[in-house]
Design brief:
It is built from nine helices and six strands; from the N terminus they run βαααααβαβαβαββα. By secondary structure, it is α/β, with parallel strands linked by helices.
């Protein structure tokens, strides 16, 4: 049977909006005006530290480092994330995949120490046949490593897998892995230019296993 591979942040839970809102608030307190368009393309990758450093320097000069900015963001972001629930359509998609006999994997840049408690709180800790994090592969998204590892964990060949993502790096990684890709952008990434090969949807509430099985066609 086919494999379904999901991202986590921004797709299953609206964590990226929380982080982006706090970032904009902290920057505003520092007298910096920014928008999602300035950084939305960087969300979804663990391989863009240099890009973030350059962006922070452009905003703040040399007065604030990325590490210092992170230290200000973390205590503000965590309580908001702890209140988030699953986004619409996630439970139904996971349940539909299980009923149809699809293998289901999670492929995320979030580390296990922070991921596992969230999955348990959200009631989906037993929903996946495999979980792969960026810590477990050599290269993070947009490299294909994490998706190839997820497919391998499911016992599936890449062309039999459908990835559901919300970010540009995630889509690029899944395409590089040779998989079908559905993108459901978050508010942070909605403005981004996604690869033309992906199927774009506005919400997972309108996505079913039946629709994934027929479009785009399995190879």
């Amino acid at each position: 049977m086919p494999g379904l591979i999901l991202d986590f942040d921004g797709l299953m839970v609206d964590t990226e909006r929380c982080l982006a809102e706090v970032l904009l608030e902290v920057l505003a307190e520092m007298g910096v005006t920014a928008t999602y368009a300035d950084f939305g393309h960087l969300f979804g990758s663990t391989e863009v530290d240099e890009d973030w450093e350059a962006l922070v320097e452009a905003w703040c000069g040399t007065t604030v480092s990325m590490a210092e900015l992170d230290a200000r963001l973390d205590p503000l972001v965590t309580p908001r994330i702890d209140e988030l629930q699953l986004l619409p359509g996630v439970e139904e998609l996971l349940g539909g995949a299980r009923e149809a006999g699809w293998g289901v994997a999670l492929a995320t840049g979030r580390d296990r120490a922070r991921l596992d408690p969230m999955l348990e709180r959200l009631g989906v800790d037993g929903a996946f046949d495999a979980i792969v994090t960026a810590e477990e592969v050599a290269r993070g998204k947009p490299a294909p490593d994490i998706f190839l590892a997820a497919a391998d964990a499911l016992g599936q060949q890449p062309p039999a897998c459908t990835v559901v993502e919300d970010s540009v790096p995630g889509c690029e990684a899944a395409l590089a892995a040779g998989m079908r890709v559905v993108v459901c952008p978050s508010v942070v990434s909605a403005h981004c230019a996604f690869p033309g090969e992906v199927m774009r949807v506005a919400s997972l509430a309108g996505v079913s296993i039946r629709s994934l099985a027929v479009y785009p066609p399995l190879r």
